[in-house]
Amino acid sequence: MANTSRTQPGATKIKAQDPVQQLTNTFEKNRNAIIGVIVALAVLIGGYFGYRNLIVAPKEEKAANALFPAERWFEVDSLSYVLNGDGQNAGVLTIINKYGSTKAANMAHYYAGMSYLRLGDAKNAILHLGKFDGKGTPFQYLAQGAMGDAYMENKEVDKGI
């Protein structure tokens, strides 16, 4: 027979531990691991915001400022300046190489593709328009139409359609 309070009248029933006491004991056993996880999360979150605010944001601003003259040249059809710059300001090809992962470099792909298409270089137009991500912008449909035109000029009718 089992040794319980029923079989032994003088025995006391084992009390369940208080939930707060259980939590305290668990924390004491795993203190180093818990503190390590908290510190790691704080470092990751701090690193993420630091990277965004100290590295990405200034790079985005510099890229946007560099793209501004190229946008002006694009408006007035100075396509050589759009692509290569004027000696004082960078062209879109330089912006793509220097600021590759920014939103301005993405727009630079659009301007490069459209400029190449107007200059009659369908192969480079397809290359740059293919790298342009215009989702959610009015440029998305313009780029798709221009890409179709570039494929047609390149004698790739199936892709152009």
Structure in words:
The protein has helices spanning 19-29, 31-75, 79-84, 92-98, 103-119, 122-131, 139-153, 157-160. It is an all-alpha fold.
Number of helices: 8
Distance between the termini: 86 Å
Major sheet attributes: none
Structural class: mainly alpha
Average pLDDT taken over every residue: 86
Radius of gyration: 32 Å
Number of strands: 0
The dominant shape is elongated
Low-pLDDT ranges? none
Strand content: under 5%
Helix content: over 70%
Give the helices and strands as they follow along the chain: HHHHHHHH
List the helices and strands and how they pair.
Layout: H1 19-29, H2 31-75, H3 79-84, H4 92-98, H5 103-119, H6 122-131, H7 139-153, H8 157-160
Helix pairs in contact: 2-5, 4-5, 5-6, 5-7, 6-7
Descriptive terms for the model:
161 residues, mainly alpha
In a few lines, what is going on in this structure?
With 161 residues, the chain is mostly helical. Helix 2 packs parallel to helix 5 (103-119), helix 5 packs parallel to helix 7 (139-153) and helix 6 (122-131) packs antiparallel against helix 7 (139-153).
